[in-house]
Design a protein that fits this description.
By secondary structure, this protein is of the alpha/beta class. About 35% of the residues lie in helices and about 15% in strands. The model has no long low-confidence stretch (mean pLDDT about 95).
Length: about 350
């Protein structure tokens, strides 16, 4: 890989991806492209994550210029309105950014001769999954705008794959773990934050839903594999569950694991809560077969300890963290309330950033 474009690199997952690709492709030109919604949401890094890039370009992925793909070998497409609450609040923008803009990017990439296109998909496309672990052949049951955007993107990417354009859709388990731009609107991260700040984990359900999990560093390992995957190894189009069977957990067991590592933590269930239909176990056998050298390495206990230690280094004690800038929906809400973003989540004209080197 001589030149790699990473969209959405200034979010939660991006810093780890940039670090991994810089390590594995030291001579490659790495280009970041991001709208910058969450650029300020840094959580104590000693080095700006984007300093590992050759170029950082600020821009809306819906208007990414075609010339940016010239001589690019691989695209890592992370840019998205990235969870269910944001998708519910900004449904039209979610479909425009997550689906339409992504397919336009893939079309431009294919026209430019890009060889590898890696799409960050999600296991949330399985929705109400029942008890059986979902393989890639299982029926899809997206329950939210975010999940629907991923399903539609996969379908349209499959039609584009071929003629030297290799597409890998990584159906990631739920992300967790420390990042230079930490999010606390993810189940494990939320539980650790509650334990550190208040000594209490409040589960907003009866704790029975299943969630598969993956550390952000292991997501970066999978992305690196997908960039280098030859078409003969999985096909010119591949949609694969990315994670490990060992990380299929019920929510109540995640809370218990956090309480075991952070003594004195009280776990509060809400048995009267409406059932959470977003419950699914996932089969990761295909990923294990195709990517034996890029399997997840992190464990749940060390992830919990890492989050605990990182939050303590920040002197974190915000009992109201669900209303803070560590919650992505709150960041977007503030940008909207202050007139910096329009209702379509475009930067207001007087503040719109022109593509430029950082």
């Amino acid at each position: 890989m001589e030149r790699i474009l990473i969209t959405g690199n200034m979010g939660y997952v991006g810093p780890g991806v940039v670090q991994r690709l810089r390590q594995e492709f030291p001579q490659a030109q790495l280009i970041g492209y991001d709208a910058g919604y969450f650029a300020h949401c840094l959580t104590g890094p000693t080095r700006l994550p984007e300093s590992r890039l050759d170029r950082q370009i600020f821009g809306d992925v819906r208007h990414l210029p075609a010339e940016l793909l010239r001589d690019v070998d691989g695209v890592v497409h992370l840019a998205a309105i990235s969870n269910d609450p944001m998708g519910q609040t900004y449904e039209a923008a979610t479909m425009a950014v997550n689906h339409a803009a992504g397919i336009r990017l893939a079309q431009l990439a294919k026209q430019a001769g890009v060889r590898a296109f890696v799409f960050a998909s999600s296991c949330s496309i399985y929705g109400a999954g029942g008890d059986a672990a979902k393989t890639e052949a299982a029926a899809l049951n997206p329950l939210t705008a975010y999940a629907r955007s991923k399903v539609q993107s996969e379908q349209d990417l499959q039609a584009l794959a071929g003629d030297g354009f290799t597409v890998t859709c990584l159906r990631f388990a739920t992300a967790c773990g420390w990042s230079d731009r930490l999010r606390l609107d993810l189940v494990v991260n939320d539980f650790v934050a509650g334990a550190v700040a208040t000594g209490q984990i409040s589960i907003l359900s009866d704790g029975s839903p299943w969630r598969p999990l993956i550390h952000v560093q292991d997501m970066a390992r999978a992305i690196e594999w997908a960039l280098g995957r030859p078409a003969a190894h999985g096909g010119q189009f591949l949609a694969v569950n990315a994670g490990t069977a060992a990380w299929n957990y019920q929510v109540r067991d995640l809370a218990a694991a956090v309480a075991a590592i952070i003594p004195g933590t009280e776990v509060v269930l809400n048995p009267a809560a409406p059932p959470d239909k977003r419950s699914y176990r996932v089969d990761f056998d295909l990923f294990r077969q195709l990517a034996p050298q890029h399997q997840p390495q992190r464990t749940l206990p060390d992830t919990i300890a890492e989050l605990r230690d990182g939050l303590r280094r920040m002197n974190f004690h915000d009992a109201n963290f669900r209303s803070s800038d560590l919650i992505r929906l709150r960041v977007l809400g503030h940008l909207r309330e202050t007139g910096q973003l329009t209702e379509t989540l475009a930067w207001a004209p007087e503040l719109a950033a022109q593509p430029a080197l950082a």
